[in-house]
Write a structure and sequence with these properties.
160 residues; 2 domains; 40% strand; alpha+beta; Nuclear Transport Factor 2, Chain: A; nine-stranded antiparallel β-sheet
C-alpha cells in the first residue's frame, strides 16, 4: 500500500511537467481564457489584440500566458494566475523609449552590451522596469533587468 501511495505522489508531482521535470505549455483558444484572466490582461495593457494563449505551470503555480500586439503593433506578453492576479506584463519597445536613468545604469553596469530586444516590464509583485536581452562579450545570451529608477540591476544568463 505504501508503494502505491508513494507512486501516486510521484506521478502527481510530474503532472504538468515533461520527462525532465520542466514545466510544459498547453495552448488555449483565446476565446476560452477565463474572464478574470482576460480582464487582468486587458487592464494591464489596454488595447491589445490577443493572438495566442497558453497555460503552463511555473514553480507549482498555474499561469496563463497571453500574447498579442498593442495599437502600435508592438509585441505584448502578459502572465496572469487563474484567479486573475497579474504576474508580469511585457511590451516590446525601442531603446530610445527607455528613460535615460535606466540607459545610464545599463551602460555603467555593462558598457559594451548592445541589447537585441528591449521590453517595458510591469510586475504584479516586485519592481517594474525594463528588460534587455542580448549577448555579452563572451557571446553568452543574457537578460538584464533594471528598475524604473535605475537602482536595481539584475543579470541572468540564458541557457542556449
Amino acid at each position: 500500500m505504501r508503494i502505491i501511495i508513494f507512486s501516486l505522489l510521484c506521478l502527481a508531482s510530474l503532472i504538468g511537467c515533461d520527462g525532465a521535470g520542466r514545466s510544459t505549455e498547453k495552448k488555449v483558444p483565446v476565446d476560452q481564457v477565463p474572464p478574470a484572466v482576460r480582464a487582468t490582461a486587458d487592464k494591464a495593457v489596454p488595447g491589445v489584440k490577443w493572438e495566442k494563449a497558453e497555460t503552463e505551470t511555473e514553480q507549482g503555480q498555474a499561469i496563463y500566458e497571453l500574447k498579442g500586439r498593442d495599437s502600435s503593433n508592438r509585441e505584448v506578453e502578459v502572465e496572469v494566475t487563474p484567479e486573475g492576479a497579474l504576474v508580469e506584463a511585457e511590451t516590446e519597445i525601442p531603446l530610445e523609449e527607455v528613460p535615460i536613468v535606466v540607459r545610464e545604469a545599463l551602460k555603467a553596469r555593462l558598457p559594451n552590451f548592445k541589447p537585441e530586444e528591449v521590453e517595458s516590464v510591469t510586475k504584479g509583485i516586485g519592481p517594474s522596469g525594463y528588460e534587455f536581452e542580448g549577448r555579452d562579450e563572451r557571446n553568452k545570451k543574457i537578460e538584464v533587468f533594471i528598475s524604473t529608477d535605475g537602482t536595481q540591476v539584475t543579470l541572468e544568463e540564458d541557457s542556449d
